[in-house]
Amino acid sequence: MNPEPISAGGARAAEPAAHTAPRKRLHSYGLLGRSIAEGVGSFLLVFATAVAIFSGTGGVSSPLGVGLAAAAAMVAFGYVSGGHFNPAISLGSAAAGRTSWKALPVYVVAQLIGALLAYLILWVLFQGHPELTDTRQIFSVLANGYGTDYQLGFPLASALLAEVVATALLVAVFLGASARRIPAVSAAFAVGVTYAVLLSILAPITGGSLNPARSTAAAIFAGGDSLEQLWLFWAAPVLGALIAGLIYRSVHLSESDAQRGDDTDEDADLLADEAADANELDNADVEEAKAQHPSGTATGTVAGASAAAPTKMSRENDDDARGFFDGDDDGGRPGTGRR
């Protein structure tokens, strides 16, 4: 139940605006609901990635198909869980203080289940085709890898560096695009485009992982070298996500400290003088109003309060409309107290 609208800063409005439905905070859906959304979104993203790779010679290139699937999943399910659908993004969000650490393992398990289910359905589809006898070879096309026997033969060091940098960029874009000031659709578009661009770069190097859940599902069904090399497609995304998340957190904390500020004695005196002047002006206005309308003072006070209430509600409703990705999983915002 969520009878009262909750603003992005955590304040509750006195009553909802007419003809508007209150936006739920992510924790309103419960950890189970959020994990289910993550699993469904992961299924959609991984399934679309596999299909896009197989149909890469068609009208839509595989990186663009993956980007569109990521954007669609974020728009469809992001308001429930935050729209991660990728263990690397969940880890980066936790490191940045945007997702609670207690929700992280649940998210990762849900994402893995969604990815495995997507590949299981593909396996069933391939088994039903009479001319497809070696399904492992088919799944090896979907698996990530490195070395002389994979794609263009990039070595381990090159594959590791490429995946770390690419994952860090993806997580950084997600964290920046899903901030409160960015509309949800714009955030989904930014993340989808980033997926497409980074996968285009990584395709000839590692096959484009960026997502440990997808790499794990593909390696399990492909077997062989794919399973032996799977460690890199966990280590690199984890390292890249931590780098991006910690940088985001440090920058955000620095901005919060700068906004709070440590005023000098001179600044404090100036602020005190300005506050005193403003108070004197307000008192003068009140006395003048009483002198001109002695019988309407109470009415005027009530009217002024009534006029101020919609303004406050309007501001809170504006906060509610600023994107549904922000402040997910009870994690709040780094550098800010909880209300």
Automatic annotation (TrEMBL):
Parts of the chain that traverse the membrane: 31-54, 60-82, 103-126, 156-177, 184-205, 231-251
Compartment(s) where it occurs, according to its Swiss-Prot or TrEMBL record: Membrane
InterPro entries: Aquaporin-like, Aquaporin_transptr, MIP, MIP_CS
GO molecular function: channel activity
Annotated membrane topology: Multi-pass membrane protein
UniProt feature, compositional bias: Low complexity: 295-309
Protein keywords: Membrane, Transmembrane, Transmembrane helix, Transport
Chief place of localization: membrane
Family named by the database record: Belongs to the MIP/aquaporin (TC 1.A.8) family.
The name this protein goes by in its record: Aquaporin
Organism: Arthrobacter sunyaminii
Upper classification of the organism: Bacteria, Bacillati, Actinomycetota, Actinomycetes, Micrococcales
